Predict the 3D structure of the following.
Amino acid sequence: MADVNGSLRDKAADGIVQAAIVGATSIGIEALNALSTGIALLDTRSHVLWANATATRLFNIRAVFKSSSPLPLALCNADSHETLREAIADACRSSSAALQLRANDARAVISAVVLPLPASREWNLHGQSAVLLAMNELIRSRSIPDRWLSQMFGLTRAEASITNWLILGRTIDQYAQHRGVSLETVRSQLKAVLSKTGVSRQAQLVATLSRLPIEHASS
């Protein structure tokens, strides 16, 4: 009887451990899906083994990607396609690479890094290596919540509004027309934003805030 009880306790403990592992994995995937950086695992033939939510969205930008999962990744721009193919091959030889993925009109749309990964039974089922592809859009596709900008830099609601306008790739002239205010008023607000964020130019502002790693709808 003691052996039976011990066996039951062991099975119960194993069940708890397995449940914890499943829970931790689920939390980890949710965390990866919250990132504004696209994360994907690729095999040596450019097949997508796994992709987070942002990477899946980026793969659907048809001006950049001609095909994606379940087919191998193929880019519309021939130079970008060849560069990515070479970067994947280099990563399989334990060498990282940085590149820009361009649209079919040669416009740079996505910055990317390809990194080598250690061999793992999880994705090395057929004796193939896997690499990690990390991607960021050069122009942010979603605005940053006003309260975040207030918490980080002390921006007012009006300052946060013009900041998000610029992050989404628009101009201050368009903002003035959209809001029905003078260009001088907008320039004054932008000057305050630059001062509070510690940058000197509009391009620096956009580049700095585009690196925020969390996808979040504006609130």
